[in-house]
User: Which sequence fits this backbone?
């Protein structure tokens, strides 16, 4: 009898633990950027690697369904560094940093976006000094988001072949597809995200390592606004929404255009 009661009690405790609601991610601080152990192993194995700094042409785009139509946003100040191992693309790594104060917005059927932009900055937690590009030196640093790339999945091809030597010095390009895996830090919350990407590698005089890299989204990846505690109510303009529109947006669909140039 005692054995039966103990078993029943254990089962009840197990069911109670399973029924607990999953907690939201806690506010976190950015981690220091360290290459994954697998990437370090590739380097120690003698495989050639290269570093690429993102250029000013890099941008991040997103779409956000709202009460009144779809909001289209662009973030134009994007920086970061990518570390590429052509002989083992899966273990490439890096970091992308986005200055949220570079946000611009447009909305379907609405030419006046000043009020929307103000509300969007408020929703992202941007202060006046952070949102104002003309702020004097010493003002608060702009809020930012970052993506820490830890690895690539479903890479095709797995290795990047050198450019042919027959036309050495002539520009040559190779392409690859993969899913980027890493930690997205946005609005104080860090969440693992996967993003399907395609890349084009440009070779010039060095036929082993590409001189440039261009990365674009194959499909948008989804960011839950609730997970990052971004209050979409702040984007409400007070206008009557179209019939059948959702009360509030729940997610943003994000795509990237990243351009990097070899720096060593």
Assistant:
């Amino acid at each position: 009898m005692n054995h039966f009661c103990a078993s029943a009690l254990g089962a009840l405790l197990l069911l109670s633990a399973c029924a607990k609601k999953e907690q939201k991610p806690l506010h976190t601080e950015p981690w220091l950027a360290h290459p994954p152990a697998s990437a370090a192993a590739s380097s120690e194995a003698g495989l050639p690697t290269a570093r690429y700094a993102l250029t000013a042409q890099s941008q991040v785009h997103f779409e956000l369904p709202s009460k009144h139509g779809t909001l289209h946003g662009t973030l134009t100040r994007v920086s970061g560094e990518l570390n590429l191992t052509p002989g083992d693309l899966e273990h490439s790594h890096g970091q992308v940093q986005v200055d949220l104060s570079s946000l611009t917005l447009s909305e379907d059927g609405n030419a006046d976006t000043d009020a929307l932009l103000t509300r969007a900055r408020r929703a992202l937690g941007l202060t006046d000094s952070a949102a104002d590009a003309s702020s004097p030196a010493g003002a608060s640093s702009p809020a930012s988001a970052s993506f820490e790339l830890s690895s690539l999945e479903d890479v095709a091809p797995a290795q990047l072949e050198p450019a042919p030597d027959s036309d050495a010095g002539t520009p040559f390009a190779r392409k690859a597809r993969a899913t980027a895996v890493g930690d997205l830090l946005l609005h104080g919350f860090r969440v693992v995200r996967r993003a399907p990407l395609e890349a084009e590698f440009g070779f010039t005089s060095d036929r082993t390592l590409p001189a440039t890299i261009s990365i674009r989204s194959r499909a948008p990846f989804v960011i839950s606004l609730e997970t990052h505690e971004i209050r979409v109510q702040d984007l409400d303009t007070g206008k009557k929404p179209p019939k059948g529109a959702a009360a509030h947006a729940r997610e943003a669909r994000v795509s990237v255009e990243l351009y990097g140039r070899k720096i060593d």
Remarks:
- The first helix runs from residue 2 to 19.
- Confidence is low (pLDDT under 50) at residues 4-22, 31-44, 129-142, 240-247.
